[in-house]
Amino acid sequence: MASQDLERGGTKSRNNYASGNYSNPYYVETSEHQWTSWLVPMFVVANIAVFIVAMYINNCPKNNSGFEGDCVAKFLGRLSFQPLKENPLFGPSSSTLEKLGALEWRKVVDRNQGWRLITCIWLHAGVIHLLANMLSLVFIGIRLEQQFGFVRVGLIYLISGLGGSILSSLFIQRNISVGASGALFGLLGAMLSELLTNWTIYTNKAAALFTLIVIIAINLAVGILPHVDNFAHIGGFLTGFLLGFVLLIRPQFGYIESRHHPANSHVKSKHKAYQYILLLAAVALLIVGFTLGLVMLFKGENGNKHCSWCHYLSCVPTSKWRCGN
Q: What is the pTM of this model?
């Protein structure tokens, strides 16, 4: 498994940051409606359910050849895990993940199985992979959903996951890839663009910006380790970053109070000019990026041929490990 699967893993730093209650200490106007978070918990339940189904279909006691060792946690019956030599993350086999919709370039392009760009987001390589991503989703997603509602956060999550899958397919074409981290990085990217486009309503802006950039940089740096699909992380992050300018725009400072002034008094415009400029630029870049990415993907293009150094974004070889192909 370790030599074939590319996981899109969560990291502790992301959890620590999100649990630090990112938005509230910096946000000034608090009169906006607070939503009840239900979609993010449903996403968590769905991911766990899909993993249980994957383990049931995997049926290690029946299908394990024994060459890599015995099944782990045999007391779980057909839900037991593949041998650790095959999958150190306590999960199913590569063939099971592939059968259930893991991202595989050849099948997406040659067999027109574009649905794998979405299904791979709901699959995980193992219990460790699943827990890391779901904890990150809870700490990041619930806070965003409470502030912006399920529609906008749900769109960012799903579209960012798709963007991560597209970029991953363009650069990683010999391995399968699974995991929700592209979507999670989309939420991180949206948090960054939300801070930038709503700059005037925050206090301690420099501290908030510095903290968020450090957390994002650390998480992206983890992606240079072998067997981690950093292209999915980068694609999801860029997609979420652009979507944040479109979907997470807030009224400028003072607009809410100005609506309650006497009728003949001046009422501030809802948004500043720069917010509209960023929104239009983000929409244009999203359209161009997705169109170009999908056209290149289904034409069978290999992104590495157009960027000879880009493979270092996903794995940097050292004396301790090799990146292979």
A: 0.86
